[in-house]
Amino acid sequence: MFEANKAAQIARERRAYNITVLGLCETRWTQSGQVRLNTGEMILYSGHEEEDAHHTEGVAFMLSHEAQNALISWEAAGPRIIYASFKTKKENIKLNIIQCYAPTNDKDEETKEDFYNKLQTLCDKLKENDMTVFMGDFNAKIGSDNSGYKEVMGRQGLGKMNENGEMLPDFCAFNNMIIGGSVFPHRRIHKATWVSPDHRTENQIDHICIGRKFRRSMQVVRVQRGADAASDHHLVLAGMKMKLKKREVKRTTRTQYNVDFLKDRLTTETFRLTVRNKYEALQDLLDEGNMDIDTQWQQIKEMWTSTCSEVLGKKKYQQKDWISADTLNKVQVRKEKKGAINNSRTRAAKATAQEEYTEANRAVKNSVKTDKANFIEGLAKEAEDASAQGNMKQLYEITRKLAGKHKRTDRPIKDKNGQLKRWREHFEELLNRPPSQNPPDITLAEEVLQINCERPSKAEIEKAIHHMKRGKASGPDKIPAEAIKADIETSTEILHDLLGKIWEQEEIPTEWKEGYLVKLPKRGDMQDCNNYRGIMLLSVPGKVLNRVILDRLKTGVDAKLRDHQAGFRKDRSCTDQIATLRIIVEQSMEWDSSLYINFVDYEKAFDSLDRDTLWKLLQHYGIPNKLISLIRNSYEDMACRVIHAGQLTDSFMVKTGVRQGCLLSPFLFLLAIDWIMKKTTQYRRNGIQWTPWSQLEDLDFADDLALLSHSHQQMQEKTGLLNTVSTQLGLNINRSKTRIMKAITKNNNPITMNGETLEETDSFTYLGSTINKHGGTAEDVKARIQKARVAFIMLRTIWRAKQIKTNTKLRIFNSNVKAVLLYGSETWRSTQKTLKRIQTFINKCLRRILHMKWTDKISNTTLWKMTKQLPIENEIKKRKWR
Length: 882
Description:
Layout: H1 6-16, E1 21-25, E2 32-36, E3 42-46, E4 59-63, H2 65-70, E5 71-76, E6 81-87, E7 94-101, H3 109-125, E8 131-137, H4 163-174, E9 177-179, E10 194-195, E11 202-203, E12 206-211, E13 218-224, E14 235-240, H5 265-287, H6 293-312, H7 325-343, H8 347-389, H9 392-402, H10 419-430, H11 458-467, H12 481-485, H13 488-505, E15 514-521, E16 532-537, H14 540-558, H15 574-590, E17 595-600, E18 602-603, H16 605-608, H17 611-620, H18 625-635, E19 639-644, E20 647-648, E21 652-653, H19 665-681, E22 688-691, E23 694-696, E24 698-701, E25 704-709, H20 712-728, E26 732-733, E27 739-743, E28 752-753, E29 756-757, E30 759-760, E31 763-766, E32 769-772, H21 778-794, H22 796-800, H23 806-821, H24 832-849, H25 860-867, H26 872-881
Parallel strand pairs: 7-8, 15-19, 27-30
Antiparallel strand pairs: 1-4, 2-3, 3-4, 5-6, 6-7, 8-12, 9-12, 10-11, 13-14, 15-16, 17-25, 17-27, 18-26, 19-20, 19-21, 22-23, 24-25, 28-29, 31-32
Helix pairs in contact: 5-6, 6-13, 7-8, 8-9, 11-13, 11-14, 19-20, 21-23, 21-24, 23-24
InterPro entries: DNA/RNA_pol_sf, DUF6451, Endo/exonu/phosph_ase_sf, Endo/exonuclease/phosphatase, RT_dom
Organism: Ridgeia piscesae (Tubeworm)
Domain Reverse transcriptase: 501-771
């Protein structure tokens, strides 16, 4: 299925034969996940999990609508095994199907044993009461002689048993299974599942096996030679009495509106007029003043959502199929040629038919290539139009499509059955941590900060609306930012009255306390819930209130924060921290001074913060009670629902942490980290000498902390104190990801935390840049070139596209490749060797974009002028001094 359009061709055959669950072998897809085709089929696939794995082996299921509705769970078990479980109409009986791709007969014994051991491990997990089916390419010839295997197979097999043919019956005997293809009598042509390329050799190596208990449920197993997908295997079909049952799932679709229509001036005017008319009609009710906040908000919400529905309409997602009708006709011709092979009576006729089939298959492949080229050219033209219009969002989306990053895949989740239930269970546990056993004693501020506590002004609200970004997902209220920004004057008027009432009563609309949680994968096993983080989709009008509060807080509180922290603060960046740390390491090497660095990693930091402690911290920093009350009320009775595969879990309460996706969250989290570091460092001087009168204890960017010390004792003490203070606020240091780096040290004793040794490292990726204990930037430069090379290769479709102008390609190169390459370059030591390596890579990329050959003999200076590029030495200097 790795060939273009192969999945669509197989889907056509599935529909033609009305197959409920279709097992596929040798898909050559890497990793695991599920994708939905334009025609509605769902593919569950499993392959090699390595990112750079070769496209070999691989297994999959293609599910009909009926099977999708009955699907309970599934599990990827490597490139040779995949498992799915379905609900049936028989009470308390599930249908378990395992698709296999066994090693060929010539593989070594260890490889075969490993396959069957994995299969047995999976089989042991299944209940005996359930119907279990094993099927796939077992590369096993079982033959017609069933001596010694009468309980496992009949006498209807084909050929003679080979080594694999012994292993399969042995496995079936151990698990009380029956090989279906050996039971039902058929003609030879309906038994052979594999045919050699010359059509002279036929074997029965694909099998469907079923548990003995359910043998009578299997009505027939036979080959369907008419199915065609240009494979040397025939379709093996099994008919079952067992019927699948649709699971009762509450599907909740999230409404999204066609906000792109607001780019049209006439549509925008219609939208504005409709909102104004509805607001004028609502104004009479609001003037009566007898509405509570929730009722008033629901009226305002209805005004915006009804206008969106009437003027913009709901957004429909329909991906165009790029295969042409001509290609589909060629596929049908190829299928007819296969029929001619099957119906040939003589070898000569079969050879002729085979030649015609080969030619027809070649015509299909060429036609698919042409269709794909036309599709890419069409996307390229769209990208060029987007570039000309300055629509960078659309240009970026098309770039992702051309790079092959547009497919969204969901992964199966291990550990517990019922994926929706499991996701809710996971995040409910994650976002409701137990309270601290030793809460800190936090003193109140002696003086409250002079921060404006009056109700929000129209100017503040208008400024907050201007700050809102377009193209962001709406929250549970379904109101997009574009709808509010379409008429800022009217929106300001509407929200001014509502926010004023919220401010006075210190009461937040219930819907603003709700959020939809979107799962984002991190590194690691994608079948483990712990390797996902959540972003909360919140009410957009609610964010206007948060922006007003944040703008008032930042100016007054920022001056009270430690200078060591650079995260989420004005005029500070990652680059500042990276440059400082590089200087520290290099100065340590130059002055032969010992240096200990502890790169601290918190576990689920934003989700773990104790809220009761957080409200005390706000008082500690002198924030007025009015603002504290508003913030606290926005968190009280906060509820959440997880989005999974287009469905929403049941709602659950969220009692710990700050909301990821809320404008106030980074600010609130900074206060917690600032207090932790103040308590950790206020009594003992355990840092490095920074000036004759001061020490530098740490470098912080949000929760990415780098503790600094000169001695083992100092670092051990500081690490212990940090761990103790962090725990009081509900934060836990992740021992498995925290790393110790030592430079010019003689003490070999490890740094420990809670009695466990922290792992030491010679280099560490800090804020995206590689820091080495020996100093220098060679390792970081090498890593950046490698990342940029991968980015360049992924965009090769764009560089080849003739429809995209060179200037557009260069813009994409600068934003997608060069930006990756030069990240952190302001901190690099610009030696001639380093500059040459970087410049060589850039020149090579530019020449490929321009399709230059080495025989063209174009100088580098001319190349830079043609592509409007600065020499890399000047580029880095410019970045250092900007």
